[in-house]
From TrEMBL:
<comment type="similarity">
    <text>Belongs to the RutC family.</text>
</comment>
<dbReference type="InterPro" id="IPR035959">
    <property type="entry name" value="RutC-like_sf"/>
</dbReference>
<dbReference type="Pfam" id="PF01042">
    <property type="entry name" value="Ribonuc_L-PSP"/>
</dbReference>
<dbReference type="InterPro" id="IPR019897">
    <property type="entry name" value="RidA_CS"/>
</dbReference>
<protein>
    <submittedName>
        <fullName>RidA family protein</fullName>
    </submittedName>
</protein>
<dbReference type="InterPro" id="IPR006175">
    <property type="entry name" value="YjgF/YER057c/UK114"/>
</dbReference>
<dbReference type="InterPro" id="IPR035709">
    <property type="entry name" value="YoaB-like"/>
</dbReference>
Length: 115
């Protein structure tokens, strides 16, 4: 069975199948924030979605981070490093990408196990 959360005409915010949660790319609501602030917003959204699936950031298997400007990586890492629990860093890829909204500085895709 596949469970879909907040499903719209184009995408679901999260799908769950066989004990794995797949999150759509999460983006910031407040685009006036700097990269650290935008990243913190996205990470809070990820926490909320993972909780709805019955899991948490300690169970993240993979993270894909898209930055509008790769030079923002140090600022993004400030928020990321404060958020990731010690000993639970997931496999991660960080890349520069042209994001859909020009005001987004970051988009994060997460795959997590559901214990």
């Amino acid at each position: 069975m596949i469970e879909r959360f907040d499903c719209g005409p184009r995408l679901a915010e999260m799908t769950v199948h066989n004990g794995v949660a797949y999150l759509a790319g999460q983006v910031p609501e407040d685009t006036s924030a700097d990269i650290t602030g935008q990243t913190a917003q996205v990470l809070a959204e990820i926490d909320a979605l993972l909780a709805r699936a019955g899991t948490s950031k300690q169970h993240i298997l993979r993270a894909e981070i898209f930055l509008a400007d790769i030079n923002d990586a140090p600022g993004m890492n400030v928020a990321w490093d404060a958020w990731v629990p010690a000993g639970h860093a997931p496999a991660r890829a960080t890349m520069e990408a042209k994001l859909v909204n020009k005001d987004w500085k970051v988009e994060i895709v997460i795959t997590a196990a559901i214990p």
